[in-house]
């Protein structure tokens, strides 16, 4: 009993739950470590509530909308044929249920520290992956001469750049983009010129890494959000000299990208050209994948095919159309429509729209940009089909909603 009392006393002075939450935010990219920390986070919160016998459960209207999304997946099991895959999908998306429940019982008191840890972890991974690429280039390359063109070739860009942590570059691009937004938010409050330059330097480094990683959607969103935000912030603060300096840096980065980062720039150009060609494109583009989803949606327009049947039906349609891809539909909007019909799509849009309007109403820059990032990435990726996207969104979305307030 004495040992138990000592443990309780120690836990009263150390916020173990918050430490675990920091660990979760720092390890989104580490697929093997992150789930362990998530389980530890929820178990620690349940244990503390049991010991203290204190359940302060507070909900909002948005909380119940988020719960409805998870309930929709459960209801989708009732009319799906592939029950095993349906349960697998629900298991992956359990974070959609657990994180809102967690924030309904736990109040994050230091959200700024949480964001700092997140940003530092992302920047540390950027540096680590760049060092790994340089090591492979100088010590593992079997192609000579070792030139800048070789380093910026496909062997050290794109998916190869994130091979050390075995992560899809589209998801890491999303992490980098949100970190850039957090740096921009900090930039609004910094008065020291040196700190401003340091923040701009980190944003530039991470933006160049996005180009090198060829995370196409993240690059486009980064260009729009970062450039737009940076211009607005510096102009509003009347820091004209720093604005001119930033414009010179952006111009220099543009020239560098056009001159040396040819592969990323060409890949982005190709994607836009293929979108214009539509079904006539030579490659199996997003348009061809999206077109394959339309007949399936028309057959089950209202309720969809159920939680677990999308992959089977989609791949069957791919085969009919001569598409060899075994991937998902690469659009979260279409994925929800396939699974749960127009009702599911409408509910998903309500989740996003509610978040966006709440961010606008409260004037919260971070939540506004976070929601735009999610909305943009959902156009070209099924970001809720992988743990990388599910935990990132679930961990931050409701937390940002609860903490959204006038800046």
Automatic annotation (TrEMBL):
<feature type="domain" description="O-antigen ligase-related">
    <location>
        <begin position="223"/>
        <end position="349"/>
    </location>
</feature>
<feature type="transmembrane region" description="Helical">
    <location>
        <begin position="117"/>
        <end position="138"/>
    </location>
</feature>
<keyword id="KW-0436">Ligase</keyword>
<feature type="transmembrane region" description="Helical">
    <location>
        <begin position="194"/>
        <end position="211"/>
    </location>
</feature>
<dbReference type="InterPro" id="IPR051533">
    <property type="entry name" value="WaaL-like"/>
</dbReference>
<keyword id="KW-1133">Transmembrane helix</keyword>
<feature type="transmembrane region" description="Helical">
    <location>
        <begin position="217"/>
        <end position="235"/>
    </location>
</feature>
<dbReference type="GO" id="GO:0016874">
    <property type="term" value="F:ligase activity"/>
</dbReference>
<keyword id="KW-0472">Membrane</keyword>
<keyword id="KW-0812">Transmembrane</keyword>
<feature type="transmembrane region" description="Helical">
    <location>
        <begin position="242"/>
        <end position="261"/>
    </location>
</feature>
<feature type="transmembrane region" description="Helical">
    <location>
        <begin position="63"/>
        <end position="80"/>
    </location>
</feature>
<dbReference type="InterPro" id="IPR007016">
    <property type="entry name" value="O-antigen_ligase-rel_domated"/>
</dbReference>
<feature type="transmembrane region" description="Helical">
    <location>
        <begin position="170"/>
        <end position="187"/>
    </location>
</feature>
<feature type="transmembrane region" description="Helical">
    <location>
        <begin position="336"/>
        <end position="357"/>
    </location>
</feature>
<dbReference type="GO" id="GO:0016020">
    <property type="term" value="C:membrane"/>
</dbReference>
<protein>
    <submittedName>
        <fullName>O-antigen ligase domain-containing protein</fullName>
    </submittedName>
</protein>
<feature type="transmembrane region" description="Helical">
    <location>
        <begin position="86"/>
        <end position="105"/>
    </location>
</feature>
<dbReference type="Pfam" id="PF04932">
    <property type="entry name" value="Wzy_C"/>
</dbReference>
<feature type="transmembrane region" description="Helical">
    <location>
        <begin position="364"/>
        <end position="382"/>
    </location>
</feature>
């Amino acid at each position: 009993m004495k040992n138990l009392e000592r443990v309780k006393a120690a836990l009263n002075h150390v916020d173990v739950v918050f430490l675990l939450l920091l660990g979760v935010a720092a390890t989104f990219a580490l697929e093997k470590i992150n789930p362990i920390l998530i389980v530890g986070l929820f178990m620690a919160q349940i244990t503390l509530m049991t010991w203290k016998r204190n359940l302060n459960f507070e909900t909002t209207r948005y909380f119940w909308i988020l719960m409805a999304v998870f309930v929709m997946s459960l209801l989708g099991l009732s009319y799906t044929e592939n029950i095993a895959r349906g349960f697998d999908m629900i298991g992956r998306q359990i974070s959609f249920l657990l994180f809102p429940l967690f924030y309904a019982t736990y109040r994050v008191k230091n959200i700024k520290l949480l964001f700092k840890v997140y940003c530092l972890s992302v920047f540390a991974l950027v540096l680590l992956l760049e060092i790994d690429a340089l090591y492979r280039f100088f010590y593992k390359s079997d192609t000579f001469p070792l030139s800048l063109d070789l380093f910026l070739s496909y062997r050290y860009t794109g998916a190869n750049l994130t091979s050390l942590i075995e992560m899809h570059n589209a998801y890491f691009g999303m992490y980098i983009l949100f970190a850039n937004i957090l740096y921009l938010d900090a930039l609004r409050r910094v008065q020291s010129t040196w700190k401003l330059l340091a923040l701009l330097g980190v944003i530039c480094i991470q933006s160049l890494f996005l180009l090198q990683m060829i995370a196409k959607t993240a690059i486009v969103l980064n260009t729009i959000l970062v450039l737009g935000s940076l211009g607005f912030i510096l102009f509003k603060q009347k820091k004209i000299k720093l604005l001119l300096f930033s414009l010179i840096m952006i111009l220099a980065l543009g020239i560098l990208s056009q001159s040396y980062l040819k592969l990323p720039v060409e890949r982005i150009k190709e994607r836009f050209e293929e979108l214009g060609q539509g079904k006539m494109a030579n490659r199996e583009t997003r348009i061809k994948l999206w077109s394959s989803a339309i007949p399936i949606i028309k057959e089950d327009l209202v309720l969809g095919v159920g939680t677990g049947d999308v992959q089977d039906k989609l791949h069957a349609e791919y085969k009919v159309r001569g598409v060899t891809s075994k991937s998902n539909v690469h659009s979260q909007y279409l994925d929800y429509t396939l699974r749960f019909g127009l009702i599911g799509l409408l509910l998903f849009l309500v989740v996003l729209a509610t978040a966006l309007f709440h961010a606008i109403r409260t004037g919260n820059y971070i939540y506004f940009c976070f929601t735009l990032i999610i909305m943009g990435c959902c156009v070209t990726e099924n970001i809720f089909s992988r743990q990388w996207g599910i935990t990132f969104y679930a961990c931050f979305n409701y937390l940002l909603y609860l903490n959204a307030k006038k800046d």
